[in-house]
Amino acid sequence: MSNPLARLLKRLRGSKTEQDERQEKPHVFVKELSPRSRRHLLRHFLALEEKDRLLRFGSKLSDDMVTRYVEGINFERDTVFGVYDRRLRLLGVGHLAFAPKEATRISGATIKPVVAEFGVSVSAAARGLGVGTRLFMRAAMHCRNADVDTLYMHCLSSNKVMMHIAKKAGMEIHRDYGEADAYLKIKPANSATVFQEALEEQVAMLDYIVKANFKALLKWGARVTGIGARKKDDGAPPPAA
Ligand SMILES: CC(C)(COP(=O)(O)OP(=O)(O)OC[C@H]1O[C@@H](n2cnc3c(N)ncnc32)[C@H](O)[C@@H]1OP(=O)(O)O)[C@@H](O)C(=O)NCCC(=O)NCCS
Question: Residue 34 in contact with residue 75, Cβ under 8 Å?
Answer without folding.
Answer: yes
